[in-house]
Amino acid sequence: xxxxxxxxxxxxxxxxxxxxxxxxxxxxxxxxxxxxxxxxxxxxxxxxxxxxxxxxxxxxxxxxxxxxxxxxxxxxxxxxxxxxxxxxxxxxxxxxxxxxxxxxxxxxxxxxxxxxxxxxxxxxxxxxxxxxxxxxxxxxxxxxxxxxxxxxxxxxxxxxxxxxxxxxxxxxxxxxxxxxxxxxxxxxxxxxxxxxxxxxxxxxxxxxxxxxxxxxxxxxxxxxxxxxxxxxxxxxxxxxxxxxxxxxxxxxxxxxxxxxxxxxxxxx
Amino acid sequence: xxxxxxxxxxxxxxxxxxxxxxxxxxxxxxxxxxxxxxxxxxxxxxxxxxxxxxxxxxxxxxxxxxxxxxxxxxxxxxxxxxxxxxxxxxxxxxxxxxxxxxxxxxxxxxxxxxxxxxxxxxxxxxxxxxxxxxxxxxxxxxxxxxxxxxxxxxxxxxxxxxxxxxxxxxxxxxxxxxxxxxxxxxxxxxxxxxxxxxxxxxxxxxxxxxxxxxxxxxxxxxxxxxxxxxxxxxxxxxxxxxxxx
Amino acid sequence: xxxxxxxxxxxxxxxxxxxxxxxxxxxxxxxxxxxxxxxxxxxxxxxxxxxxxxxxxxxxxxxxxxxxxxxxxxxxxxxxxxxxxxxxxxxxxxxxxxxxxxxxxxxxxxxxxxxxxxxxxxxxxxxxxxxxxxxxxxxxxxxxxxxxxxxxxxxxxxxxxxxxxxxxxxxxxxxxxxxxxxxxxxxxxxxxxxxxxxxxxxxxxxxxxxxxxxxxxxxxxxxxxxxxxxxxxxxxx
Lengths: 268, 245, 237
Hints:
The complex is a heterotrimer.
Chain A: H1 5-16, E1 34-38, E2 46-52, E3 57-68, H2 69-73, E4 80-86, H3 94-110, H4 113-116, E5 122-134, H5 140-152, E6 155-159, E7 174-181, E8 188-195, E9 198-201, H6 205-210, E10 213-220, E11 223-231, H7 243-266
Parallel strand pairs in A: 4-5
Antiparallel strand pairs in A: 1-2, 2-3, 3-5, 6-7, 8-9, 8-10, 10-11
Chain B: E1 25-29, E2 38-44, E3 47-57, E4 71-78, H1 94-110, E5 120-129, H2 134-148, E6 157-165, E7 168-171, H3 175-180, E8 182-189, E9 195-200, H4 206-244
Parallel strand pairs in B: 4-5
Antiparallel strand pairs in B: 1-2, 2-3, 3-5, 6-7, 6-8, 8-9
Chain C: H1 6-10, H2 24-39, H3 41-46, E1 48-52, E2 60-66, E3 69-80, E4 90-97, H4 104-121, E5 130-140, H5 144-166, E6 175-179, E7 184-189, E8 193-199, E9 204-205, H6 208-234
Parallel strand pairs in C: 4-5
Antiparallel strand pairs in C: 1-2, 2-3, 3-5, 6-7, 7-8
Family (chain A): Belongs to the RNase PH family.
Subcellular location (chain A): Cytoplasm; Nucleus, Nucleolus
Domain Exoribonuclease phosphorolytic (chain A): 186-213
């Protein structure tokens, strides 16, 4: 978004106030309204769509595949695979690769092996495919919320053969139409923008443009987790952050996480 | 020989349709009003397609600009989760590139391009689910999104596929049928019998071509009516909103 | 093909080479020594070797060696860019890994971190319609799996020195430090303001204060690093 000098200084000054005055009238810890849809792709195990008020839209599909556990132990395969497509961005741009590496590490750390385990030899592998149809702000929060909804509404085929195949080799067989809901805890990621001495959650494109710096913070089950990173929210007017602002943003995220999860769960 | 009975002696196909029946066709326009100039969503059977149109707008580089007409930019994204088995497809895949080229040719003829000199019209397609009829569903989606964007066109381009199996023409094939039956895809111009698009990648006997084309054109007209209904429904909605103000 | 009986040279088919492995207690001991050393910033500094201006073709360059990690950074610019007028300098970072241990994803992540750090610090408005390129060469890496972000902090320090060597205007010296336990790297300027922050571990912070402690500790370390960088620069090498 291109702002004029006057617009920029007006926005910056109003966001600098205490409490900050945001262009859309939100409070420091208020998100933009989201619209959700789940389970609309019949050929995927789980799917979700979130649309933001500014027209940003993200679709996530979860697909599964049965693989041998040995292939994970030997490092040939991974339990979770993440792929991101952002309309108008090249697949190999550093922006996309950074998003993929952040999400891959957070999901492979916090999606437990037990929840996907089938038998002694086989396990499910999840493919998380993310499609961002349009985005105007930093998409990581949008992506992580949509993936949360998709993963929470994933149904995997029910295993009918025995779990113990250590002694007798047996291919897993599945029920014809019954599914089991995937029971996992899913981490989410928040974006906080720093403006002077203020910190605001879920910045929109205008706020991003004038912000001094941005931080992404992971949240899982009531606690703060990695990634804790600073991110570039605009081109070229970033400034340094005071350490106490980082701590305050982390505290804000910690206190907000549970209510965000509750409202996402209510959307199912 | 397929495991499935493509066309039973009783005249039923794998999904229970007769030879001349279309699949469920649902469409919506103006689905992404905040992020695009024109948008549409098309469900043709189990295939689901989103189309986003932006433009006519200033081209990003002078090289793309034509002084006499609008240039079309089409990007087709077949998502890795669209097929039953997950498969990542590159945008530079030959098959995708071929489809993009034929779409470009079709719509350069159907949009009144000389009304918009020095501009580009960018069309982005996302295929969310694919069950046969890739080309036909995206052609219909583009037509609707262009109408939503208010871009001048000569007429609707409605597209449908038709195949020929065991001396019977079959209308609007799904994925299973597509893999076993030789078929063609057409784009019909409005209510006429003119074609803006014809793609046949395997063989159909010349003497049978007419019967296949006839059923395909009839199917195309039906789809045009369904699309027209949606456009008018949306138009009425817009009008009533204006009237209320 | 020689007619020599190769079996005599090779020995029996089922031989295995003799490997003298570290006993587990010994390797544990070594790990412990390494980890303790990670805590002691002063001893690290005394083991670090820095040299600037080795690459004469570049506008600025630096060479840094620490504990088996060897990094060379060269800066090209500010040089004019083609095309339309731009108000600010554009900065681009390239990382070349000669040891081929850094994956593409991490390579991009490292470049991104360095770019974020230095767009904040370089006075970009001073050089309109120009570009600055930072080329990082990683020549040798020690224990990458465990110390990958340590390497990143070394790269960041080497880049600061190279930028100073090139005479490009920067707000302050960026000094980066690394915490092994939480796998965190933070880059500081102006004694305790943060320009870069990257933390990637499977640690769960039950108490926000834990993270505060990490920032404090790294802040103190960074002051020591900064002082020694200044000492090096003042000594006029």
